[in-house]
Amino acid sequence: MSVVIRGSQLARMLGQWHPLPGTRRSPEYAALAQAVRGLLSDGRLALGVRLPAERELAEALSISRTTVTAAYRELRETGHLASRRGAGSWTTLPSGHRVSTTGLWTPTDTMGMIDLGCAALPPPPELVPAARAAADELPCYLGDAGYHPTGIIELREAVADGFRARGLPTSPEQIMITSGTQQALDLVLRHHLAVGAGVLVESPTYPNALAALAARRARIGTHGLDPAAGWDSELLFSTLKQTRPRLAYVIPEFQNPTGRLMPAELRERLPSVAHSTGTDVVADESFVDLPLDGTPMPPPVAAFDRHSRVLTIGGMSKPYWGGLRIGWVRASAPVVQRLAAARVGVDMGSPVIDQLVAVQLLRQRDAIVGARRLQLAAQRDALVTAVRTTFPEWRVVVPSGGVTLWAELDGPVSSALSHAAEDVGVRLAPGPRFGLDGTLERYLRLPFTLPADDLIEAVRRIADIRYDLDRIRTGSRWRTPEVIT
Asked: How many helices (H) and strands (E) are present in the chain, helices listed first?
């Protein structure tokens, strides 16, 4: 069943869509059609959504029905709207614009390459001493086979302590240790999601989550996330009630890639609405340890869960180091046991030595994470200043935490810009990688995990090639569009 958007909801999303007054102003219907196309290209309006009837939208916008009729006709002519008599009109993209994504990125050893495709920090200085201390504790675990499907008790207790410190009562029996957050998501999908079942995700969202869902052949629906305003709770809950997906995947803390923080009011309502629609919520807390500028943190989504609908996943990749493959799932104790049973067919358990290193690092959490926050805040500010100075026409919302800046470009050139940037030694992650079907071409994710000097140099290199994209050259390498896979 298609999602139906009401006239009042679409009117709110369109905002100030009217053409600017002037001697050569566009017709009103053309401006309305262009505004709808903008919502589609930015991913705020999902594909396959049934638009309101012409009369309903005309009333919501206080314009004539004739104007809406002409706008819908233009959208059909450009391939952005499909209509069928008696069934209404729903959003599409012109043929040939579909772009799939696997979320893959390839590290490089090329000298001089500034890699902004990977939003990850280098290891903290405490890592090597923690590894040595873990090796000293390893003999205590050499008396058995070393398989711990739910994780060693010391680490499960340490992770539970972290949840309790945030006001969420948690026992070690509610924690399962995994080989990274991505495996945590994969195991949850294996257990909770039948092949072909429906899943609702944010748009934009984490590309490797999309890859995991594609591997399960899930039917993926999207809820548009506004870079400035964040989640539209009315539209989110309406979509949940209409589509009743099996799972909803959200990133409530400093959402990847937008950096938005889900407000407490939405966190409070989400579990109850999800329960009413038979939907389990997967809350990805990968960035929960990285608020910047003293940002107060709302309670976890699971704090409002009364029906065991919320499964929380997280890990140590972002605040500590990606090379330490330690993640976790927090759920009810019976669900943890079922996940562990499913995990036995995958890898039997995470390496004991890695878990012992994680225990050592978590004992120093305040010092390590505190230093990370100071580092990231300085690098974020350097990147924001460089972008705003070099590209005043780009729009950025300064994130209050996390590790990424989501920049709205001055045109739908994200993929072309990313391709050209390779030639000047900068690797970028274009906007379409974070969405479905070729949308988000006006956006670019810029992580601030590298030193400030590297970030400033990357922006300078991007500026060297940005405006060349506007000049079409015969026989240039741009004659064939590239598909991101």
From this structure: 15, 16
Which among 153, 175, 164 has a CA at the least distance from the CA of 336?
175
- CA-based R_g, the chain, Å: 24
Residue written as token pair 């400093």: 254
Beta-carbon contacts of 229 under 8 Å, excluding residues fewer than 6 positions away, are: none
End-to-end CA distance of the chain: 28
Q: Is 60 helix (H, G, I), strand (E, B) or coil?
A: helix
Other beta carbons within 10 Å of 468: 13
Q: What residue has token string 């314009």?
A: 63
| Residues 437 and 483 sit within 8 Å (Cβ to Cβ) | no
Give the pLDDT band (50/70/90) at residue 19.
low
Output the CA angle 184-208-182, nearest 5 degrees. Answer: 15
Q: Enter the tokens of residue 128.
A: 């090597």
Residue-wise pLDDT for 215-240, tens only, equals: 889 999 999 898 888 999 999 999 99
Any idea which residue has 């396959």 for tokens? 48
Q: 187-226 pLDDT, tens per residue?
A: 999 999 999 999 999 999 999 999 999 988 999 999 989 8
Contact partners, residue 436, CB within 8 Å, separation at least 6: 43, 47, 101, 203, 210, 220, 222
Q: Count CB neighbours of 28 within 10 A.
A: 19
Backbone angles phi, psi at 202, to 5 degrees: -75, 155
Asked whether the beta carbons of 299 and 267 are under 8 A apart, the reply is yes
CA 151 to chain centre: 27
Distance CA 422, CA 34 (A): 32
Distance CA 61, CA 373 (A): 44
Cα dist. 180→161, 177, 358, 406 in Å? 19, 8, 12, 25
Reading the block at residue 388, the tokens are: 């705003």
Nearest to 414 by CA among 393, 445, 389: 445
Choose among 158, 123, 72: nearest CA to 356: 158
Dihedral sign computed on CA atoms, order 353, 358, 359, 361: positive
